[in-house]
Amino acid sequence: MKAILGLLLIFSLVFAQPHGKVVQTPYVKPFKVVYELFLDHPEKIRPALGWISNVIFVLTNPPYDFSPDDIHIVVVSHGRELPVFAMKNKEQYADIVERLESLSMYGVEFKVCKMAAEQIYGLSEKDFYPFVELVPSAITEIIHWQLQGYALMIPQVFEIRR
To answer: pTM for this structure?
Structure first.
């Protein structure tokens, strides 16, 4: 018995990989995600958008080759990043707005909490870019999309202090 176990151990060591391996998870179409943005500073939206770009990049390239119609991404904003979506702040956030517009052309939907826009920032629908939709409440909107089968992603953006 010890000889058999010894042989099995040697056999498994001979054929074991000395490193990790790449796997191709079989992602299913349609790929549906709702991102909640509730950041504590407008600048943090840059890395948060990276979370969205990552999903699009992975799924639209080999081996998956999803089309834009196969991916549905909804972004719901209700934090301090909200002013980035207001046209009056275009100069201050020009690079971010360009990225938002690009993502919207890819089919990403951007939704802003109407309550936060009005009550905290004094903004109305006329203050936002055409690719932005105001929804009654971020919380009810996020729940709505989850009930439709969308996975919830909440980007975590940390400050790196040296």
So the answer is: 0.86
